[in-house]
Amino acid sequence: MVKFLLIFFLVSIVLRFVLPVLMRWLVVAFVKKQTRRYGQQFGANPFEAPRPAPPRNSTATGQVHVDYVPPKQKPTQPKEFKGGEYVDFEEVK
C-alpha cells in the first residue's frame, strides 16, 4: 500500500508541475521552427514588426491633403412597393 501511494504521489507531482513546463517548452520550440520555415519559404518573419512606410511628400504641420472626395449623391426616397406577382400555391401530397 505504501509503494502504491508513493508511486501515485510521484506521478501526480510529475503531471502537475513537470508536464506543463515540458509541454510549454515543446510548443515554443515547434512555433519557432515553423517561424523559421515560414521565413525561409516566404522571406518574412510573421512575428516581426512591420517596417514603417517611407514618408510621403509631407505638408506643413496642421494642413490636410485629401486625395479623393467621393461625389455627393442626391437623397433618394424609397419607391413605394406595389406588390409582386401572385403565384398560386398547390399542395403536393
From TrEMBL:
Keyword line: Membrane, Transmembrane, Transmembrane helix
One Pfam family this sequence matches: DUF4834
InterPro entries: DUF4834 (IPR032272)
Region called Disordered, residue ranges: 42-63
Transmembrane segments: 6-31
Name the record gives this protein: DUF4834 family protein
Source organism (scientific name): Hymenobacter telluris
